[in-house]
Amino acid sequence: MTNNNQDFIQRTESFLFGEARLMDDNDYQGWLDLWDQECSYWIPSNQEDYDPKLHISILYCDRPMLEQHIARLLEGKAFAQSPKSRLMRSVTNVMASQKGTTIDVTANFLVTGIRSHQQHSHAGRSEYQLRECDSGFLIQKKKVILLALDEPQDNVTFLL
Amino acid sequence: MRQSINYDDLVKPDAVHGDVYTDPDIFRDELQRIYANSWVYVGHESEVPNAGDFKRSTIGTQPVILSRDKQNKVHVLFNRCRHRAATVCQEDCGNSKKGFRCDYHGWVYGLDGALTIVPYEDGYENLDKSQLALSKPTAVDIYRGFVFASMPEPKITLQESLGAPTMAQIDYFCDLSPEGEVMVQAGAARLLYNGSWKLQMENSIDGYHPNFTHQSFFSTLTRMTGIRLDTFDGGSTAGIRALGQGNTHIDYASYNHESPRKEAKLNGLKSTSWGREYYDSMVSAYGQERAEDIIVVGGTHMNVFPNLIVLGQQVRTIRPIKHDKTEVELAPVLLKGVPDELNTERLRQFEQFYSPHGGGIHDDIEMFNRVQEGVQCTMDPWLIFQRGLHREKQLPDGTVSSQVTDETSQRAMWQHWLKVMQQND
Prior knowledge:
heterodimer, A: 3 helices, 6 strands, globular, B: 14 helices
């Protein structure tokens, strides 16, 4: 059920905008802290939906794998992000609904990055399942559907 | 008329001139002398499993269609209407009952390329439709599902072109399935970079770079598992091999067979119920000795000149676009007749290193971009491929072998490239 409560929408948006800022700032640790201890993060490849057991993904990970992914980026020797991308993204078209402490959210994003003097844009839609807790929201699930999910990718090694 | 290039001046036994990565004229010669003049990998049979299935591919920069007709025969068709040259197939892959229709003037071709419909045919005085099928490469041949095509009449057969050592490696890759079949049906990652296609070929069988380009991946792995991977150390017992015809191989066989690695791998596999099930099916398919060898060696890691790489879980295709632009398609395979858990585990392993958001391949791509920029400096134009030249050995099967970090593989690739490029158009 869509909850039109203004305060609820505002809090959800403000969480997404905060997340966007952490990703734009390449703040890997700060972004990891937004995730729940049990979580799943999926960026599908080639098509929007399928069984990830028998089809590859651009990323498909649980909490331990997400930590490994972030640890590698934090080390400073991930050369595709050394130097890092300069990033700026807009998050729009936010829709959210709440059931108990669980919030389902979808939002579109457009991220522009500059690296090695080349500017690239990537568009997509993110689907979240958030959990409300004392400190605010935590990400339980996130699925990022890139517009170019079936195209040759350039450097998309920044946070999505 | 441009001056013809003297290729002898560009490739030495231990060095390569920077022009081979930057000169558009050399790229044009490559398309003609390599891609339009020898066996080239087009796709895998399993990508078009059913009658009517098709997939777009390329021979060099030329668009082709891999299709399967109603008699179950696989075809390679040039994607160019014989009338006024528009492409007749737009979708990357799919299934078509009727074949391919050119949307420009409505000419229709069958799945085997035969021209079936010409609208308002009575407007032509003498149109012989049988002479106007979609063009085909002169020869198409298949080894273990890998479809190759040769535009001119091939000077040697596909089997001669691959050679026994290369076929043995493809066998290792396919025999990981107890039914001996791999299926390229799990999607693909596609990457684009601003550099020569040869940079990807050099890099795929480069055992010197992993400890440096991929140090973030390996150190993360060490933190997670407590094990430091020493495969690519200067003293590692892993090898590098030149297989003939410019085909090359990183050889983990003896390294993987060493104790306790071998036992750890087999016992690890047998510790899960699905792993045990897989092990048993492999033993009944191949006998214990060969089954354990296949499992322990774990597939292959090889280049098939000019555009196929068979590596770990994947089939990788190189698509040259320009002298400084290349697309790479990385398609992990599913093993036929194994528990889903094994295929899933292999897909997750693939993603960790090879997906566009994973921990490995983009650091390679970063290096290709850096080489393509660096090679613009022409004061000292030679790239050095000298490593291990003094210690490589010819083996009884004709292959040349050396330590894994040696540049035996790149030297073999470049010597073959030179031989092919010296042919005149």
